[in-house]
Every structure is written in structure tokens, then in C-alpha cells.
Amino acid sequence: MSWRDLGSGEVTPEHVGQRLTLAGWVARRRDHGGLIFIDLRDQTGLCQLVVNPERSPEAAAAAHGIRNEFVLQAEGEVAARDPANVNPNLPTGAVEVQVDRLEIISTCPPLPFQLDEDNVDETLRLRYRWIDLRRDRLQRNLRLRAQMVSIIRRVMEGDGFLEIETPILFKPTPEGARDFLVPSRLQKGRFFALPQSPQILKQLLVIAGFERYFQIARCFRDEDLRADRANELTQLDVEMAFPDVEYIMELMERMVVEVWRETLGVELEIPFERLTYAESMARFGTDKPDLRFGLEIEEATELTRTSQFKVFAGAPAVRFLRVPQELSRAELEQLETFAKDWGAKGLAYIVYGEDGEPRSPIAKFLSEEELAHFRSDPGSTVLFGADEPAKVARALGALRSRLGHELGLVDREAFRWVWVTDFPMFEWSEDDGRWSAVHHPFTRPTPESESLLDTDPGAALAVAYDLVANGEELGGGSLRIHEADLQAKVFEILQITPEQQRDRFGFLLDALGMGAPPHGGIAFGIDRMVMVLAREPNLRDTVAFPKNQAGFDPMSGAPSEVPQEQLDELGIRVVVPNDKKG
């Protein structure tokens, strides 16, 4: 049986006079007092059906009971529309199908929300995700995603990379987030972990002699969610033997250029800009800088060493932003609360009115030299951060991002890319009282930093690089440690004991001692790439069936309880917290 001859969006003036059968969903029904017009939708587009009771009384009778999202099959003759009724915004807008036979294949009750309705509650959208996915925007996003992945595969294969799948059930290894654990029925009391990434496995593949590996990999991280973060994610995973950082960067730039050219028709200029981590933090207050607007952080630490304003004089770092707007007292109070939420102790300011005169409670403590340095345009405001450098960067970086969007400084049509390089190897955790890896524990130190591992780990830099687009980190990579003794030393700095090293990473250390070549690579977040490509603010609208921000699936009800007999078979006892008991 043939359901249709063409897609609804494929009917053209060349088909005028032909009889065609179409099938799809009712996007819209309009009753014009006899004539009934139906916009029939499928994945190719829309076609207008015209049901005339004089031409086909049976089709007209069926059409009277039709509602949006019914599934229909229609047979009829393609006709040219009257010139006055041509729709230039629709590819099929010059034709219509005069229906002779109409069959209702599937009915649909009144929808929980309309496909063209804005501001629908996200929980309701996720509960009826199959309806939500019929929206034009989500259809576009998922088709864009599929096209993007196809292009990525073509580029990677063209450069000799081999796609190899790695296990979903693997060993729990600390990589930054909590693991999702999977109990083993055959080995009671033991657990697999879903991979946070194929990091160790791809290193093993390169050690095994597959010199150029890639994979479109599923990854799982049990972490708190945000608009740009999910428990389940997909990444382009890349690793190569005898790596060249410049080649890896050039390959990724070439891949991105192909994606943007073929999906959006946008030509990106390469090579992309580069910033060191230190430069990025000093100028933008983040290692994910959005370069679509200026508003850069400026330095004033040395200038204020002898300031009469003691907050400045005693601070390890003093930096400021020049905001191109005269902010009111209420706005300043809101920004100070925001800055404190980001770790600032307060927010000093100087407001320059339209007369150019400074207004500030700290102005009387500042020297002429300081005031001259901070001088800004009439109708502007200078905001200060004074604290430890990292805290100042964090607070002013967050303020910069907020003000850039609120004041309309961001060029929303632009795509601005930047490589951030020379990351620190380690960062100190005050809560844990120990060093942690900035990227992951397999990242290679720069040659100049290897000697610092024994004396000053906090000063060691890594051969690591991130690719950032419009303030979103899309890719991150590094050269890896290929020597077992150097890897063991990094584990020691991270306070992973020799016993823990053998238990968690013994197989990797063994492999590193058996002819491991130098190797390195990168991983790209597929979901985030679609976010930037489609200009979507929420990652959940780039995947087919996401969880909500609480990690719950309103559609299926997952995660859900399981029968006691299944728990018994796995040797698991569930302990429900008191506040969850009925």
C-alpha cells in the first residue's frame, strides 16, 4: 500500500493537472461557509487542501469533523491558485489540491497546548513531548542537529579518523561529577558506572594502535542542572597519537566552518582568536568569554596601592568596568546584591551624570590621579571590584555578562569564537583542603611546568585548550600524560593514594607502561553546539527527550520505583529519607 505520492512540501506548479495522494497532519483547518481549507503538514512542509462539497460531498462530510493534528490521507488534483491567493511565504503557496477523496487515518483530542502558542509551561511541554516536538522550532533544531552530526562525521573521516564505539557500562572513575551507578545482577554488591566521558577508553584505543579515533559518544553526569547542562549529553570525542596541538585546533576550526557554512550559510573567518587563560580572566572575568560585545574589565591594582580608600589599598586586586549608562540608586543596589551573590563583598561605584561630574560616596577618598584614571563619559557608571583576583574576576565577569545583555550591547546576530589556552593544571579547593584537576587528571603539564609539580603545583600550566563561542564552552581538549610515572605523580598531587591508583586506574597505568605513544585530543559538546548554532537559550530544546531541571522526565515518570522482587534479585535495599515517606 502506498500512503502518498509526494511530501506535502514537494508539490509544485509542475504538478498542476496531476492527481496526487498526500498524507500528513492537519496543521490548520478553515471553514469558509462551504469550502473547507486544510493545511496538511508533514516533514517536507505544508500543502493547502481544498474540500468543495460540490466536487466531493463525501470528502466534505469527512472534513467537517476534522480538528488540528488529525492524520489524513487526501487524493485529488493539483490546481494553480488564483493569483490573488498565492502565498509567497510558502514554497507550495502557488498551488493547492482539489480533494476528491479524504480519509481520516487517526484522530486527535483537543491539544494540551497549541503548536503556535508561546510561553507554554515547560513541564507541560515535556509531559506531552511528542506534541511539543511537532513545533517548527524543535523540528528545525533536531534536523539541524542531525545535519551537523553528519557534517562532523564527514570531516573527521576525511582526515583519517576511525569511529569506534566504547562501552556504556564501565568502571566508576572520578572525573569531576558524580557517576550514575548500575547494579550488577550477576555480581551482587558490585556496580558499573555510566561513562562521564570515554576519556580513559579513548586513550587506551590510541595506545592500542588506532592512531586517529573519534566517536559521537553518549555521556552521563549526575550533577545539578542548568539551562546549558544536562545529565545525559552527547559529545564529539577525538583522540590521536603523536598529536600536534596546532593540527587539532586547525581540524576543529575546519569542522566548525563546514557546519556553519552548510547549515546556516554563514562564513566564519579562521583562524579563530586566541587568549591565554590569564588574559581571559583579567579582561573578561571568565574562561568562557563572550566577545560579541566590549565592556572589558580594566586594571587598577597598582594605581590604588596607596589609595586613601582603604578597601582599595588593602585589596590584592582592584579592577573595574565602565558601564555606558548612568545607573540609578535602585539599579546600583540590585547590581550590588547580584555581585554579592557571585562572591563580592560589596560594589563600589562612580556615577557620571550628563554634566560629567562624578557622584560617589568614595570619590572624596580618591586622589586626582585615581579620578583621572577612572574618568568616564557623561551618562556612564564605573563599577569596582576589590578582593582576591579570582573573586574579583568572578563577580565582575558575571556583572559584565548581565549588563551586556540588559543594555543591549550583545550583537545577537554574530558568532564570535575564541580559543582559551594555557590553563592551570590544578586549583585549590578550600572545602576539601586539597588540589583538584582543572580539566581532568590525565592532562599533561607544559614542559616548563613539570618541575613545578614537586615545588609549586598551583603555578603549573597544562597543555590544554578550550574553544568558546558566544560565551559557551563548546570544546575542550589537551595533550595527555603518556608516562606511567608522571601520571602517578599527578595522582599523588590530587591525593589519590597508591592503593586507590591501582584500584581505580590500574589498567590505565599498566597500559601507559606498555608502549604508550604521546597522545591528545578534544571533545565537543554536540548539545551546546546546537544551542549556539540555533541560537537557543536552553539546552533541553536541542535534544529529543530531555529531563527537566530536577532530572525528572514528566513524560514517562522516570526515575520510577521498581518492584521489590527486582531489588531482591539485585541485592539492593532502598532506604527512603524521612521527608520522603508517606
How do you describe this structure in short?
This protein has helices spanning 57-63, 122-127, 129-132, 136-158, 199-207, 245-264, 277-284, 310-313, 329-341, 368-374, 389-406, 452-455, 484-493, 498-512, 526-533, 564-570; strands spanning 19-32, 35-42, 45-51, 71-80, 95-106, 162-163, 181-183, 191-193, 212-220, 232-241, 273-276, 298-299, 317-323, 348-352, 358-359, 380-387, 417-421, 426-429, 434-437, 464-469, 472-479, 519-525.
How would you characterize this protein structure?
Helix 4 crosses helix 15 (526-533). The longest helix has 23 residues, at 136-158. Helix content is 28%, strand content 24%. The protein has helices spanning 57-63, 122-127, 129-132, 136-158, 199-207, 245-264, 277-284, 310-313, 329-341, 368-374, 389-406, 452-455, 484-493, 498-512, 526-533, 564-570; strands at 19-32, 35-42, 45-51, 71-80, 95-106, 162-163, 181-183, 191-193, 212-220, 232-241, 273-276, 298-299, 317-323, 348-352, 358-359, 380-387, 417-421, 426-429, 434-437, 464-469, 472-479, 519-525. It has 582 residues and is α+β, with helices and mostly antiparallel strands.
